Amino acid sequence: QVQLVESGGGLVQAGGSLRLSCAASGSGSTINTMGWYRQAPGKQRELVATITRGGTTDYADSVKGRFGISRDNAKNAVYLQMNSLKPEDTAVYYCNARTVFTNNWGQGTQVTVSS
Question: Can you tell me the distance from the alpha carbon of 108 to that of 115, in angstroms, rounded to the nearest whole number?
Answer without folding.
Answer: 23
